[in-house]
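User: Predict the structure for this protein chain, please.
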Amino acid sequence: MALTSIDLLIVGLYASALLAVAIWVSREPKGQTKDTADYFLAGRALPWWAIGASLIASNISAEQIIGQSGQGFAVGIAIAAYEWQAAIVLIIVAKWFLPIFLKRQIYTMPQFLDQRYGHGVKSIMSVYWIALYTAVNLTTVLWLGGLAMNSLTGWPVMVSMAALGVFAALYSLYGGLKAVALTDIIQVVILILGGLAITWIALDRIGEADGALGGLSRLYSEMPGHFKMMLASDHPAYGDLPGIWTLLGGLWVLHFSYWGFNQYIIQRALGAESLAEAQKGLAFAAFLKLFIPLIVVIPGIAAVILASQGALDAGALADKSDRTYGELMKIAPAGLRGLVFAALIAAVVSSLASMMNSISTIFTMDIYRSMFRDRPERHYVMIGRVTAFVAMGAALLLAKPFIGGFESGFQTVQEYSGFIAPGVVAVFLLGFFSKRTNAIGAVTALFASIGVNILLKFGAPEIPFIIRIWFVFMACLAAAIGASRLMPAPSAEKPVDLQDIAFGTRAIFNVLAIVVLVMLVGLYVLLW
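Assistant: Here is the predicted structure, written as structure tokens:
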């Protein structure tokens, strides 16, 4: 179903407002030019509400909206574990990890590794993160966003991807992180309003005369299997979400890798005006995380009944569950369809802009600057912009061959990330809390992560992915500790000195943390 004039007007107003705000916040004072702190860390002046909103806007991309809607259709509410457990991890990262990062005044995650382990570990991880963000994250967001646009507009997927990439570049390349973070406030509002609209429409169609709340009640009573957080061992999706192991296993490792040590996420906190602001921002994001399944998973579950009623194309959904959200968008009435479409664009371009900025930050500050020192600040900013543009072009070319053949884009990202995530988490945790771990131990953990993953994936394919990640993580810890003991201890200045780092938190953070934990316990009790 094509977009109507009112839909196009809404999308046009959204795009115009976004570009106007990006230009306004990116303007430079007379006689000044952006330095690297301005471009890559927003001048270290981001307030808590911008940090929290930007975290959610960057995270809720095509992977979540499209991928998790598809998983909601195929599996059910169990996929919400990726959202709800993230809320706990955000609280932990805010309290125990951010104080260490901000004390060291770092720009990037590789920079911390350089300070803690040395140049070799930093170089390995810099290359890895640039490759992952470009070949996996950017490509997945582009591909899934292109699929959804194709479902609604009929544009070819490649054209749709190019349009999304160009739009993201238009508002982010000039202004850097400040433009990305502050425009993300608009993105979050549009994303939530559009997500709630599609949820309400889908549930209302099910409820018929009883409305959206009646539709939710009917959905819960008619599809109890789709409202179970803990899947039974004979469930077809047990390999991806293995029951109690989603609480006890490697999903925590993936979360800590993503929310704690992932440049394109943690960069917002590194740009905070203070530690207290950064911590409040992460607590705010944790609170918002609790409601994300309402706008990404519930519509996917509703699509099961809507497809059986003939309201959606059952054949298209059976062929590829990632088409669920695009099909749901078709049933929205004129006007609301434009809002939902704008929300999808907001989710995609905010994530694209964030990834482009992080790729440019790592390449410029951790690779290029180490080879070409003492250049003017504006030179490094220019290199960052060129790097972001090149990364987007590469992702456009790689999207279809890398992601197009997989059934679920969301699970594909987890699989790719899982090869190195256990090693990353082991290296950072030991870097924080083990003074004896050295560079040899860190490198051993990173290579063990890949090697043990491959060994278990092909040698023991019956082990569910999340359980495998936990086994690999434990192997990485053992490998790092063992290798470090065989070699001399690191020099005295390398280990993190925790004595002068304040881990205390403000009252507002503590209250938000308690609220998040109580709500999570209630959700798991209700949906166990």
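The chain has one domain: 37-410.
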